[in-house]
UniProtKB/TrEMBL annotation:
One of its GO terms (molecular function) is arsenate reductase (glutaredoxin) activity. Keywords: Arsenical resistance, Oxidoreductase. It comes from Caballeronia hypogeia. It catalyses: [glutaredoxin]-dithiol + arsenate + glutathione + H(+) = glutathionyl-S-S-[glutaredoxin] + arsenite + H2O. This is Arsenate reductase. Transmembrane segments: none annotated. The keyword Transcription regulation does not apply.
Amino acid sequence: MTVTIYHNPKCGTSRNTLALIRNAGIEPTVIEYLTHPPGRETLVALIARAGMPVREALREKGTPYAELGLDNPDLTDDQLIDAMLAHPILINRPFVDTPKGARLCRPSELVLDILPEAQKGPFTKEDGEVVIDETGKRVR
């Protein structure tokens, strides 16, 4: 069983998502996409597998999104993918790919819907929000 997370260790949501994967007893393949970005084929397939439009996979905050004019609705999916490949910071995070599907895990608890294993114990996010109770059940 392979679980892959496209991870940014500086992002709290990404760290929480990784911790939830590990809380299920899974050691995922961790790809720090800013230093090892996915290729075109992988990125296109990941977005398609997540069932989302390419535009929704773009990150605006803290990126050159505005400077590159990526808010232009006339840009094609290929042009948006080109921008993400040229500037990996534009790829929203964290994407997780499992045998049960792929998701952009914002918020981090969306990963629970695609994990092949149940949570093994309680889990609290870095900000103090309880996600999994002491019996291993999702709080909400």
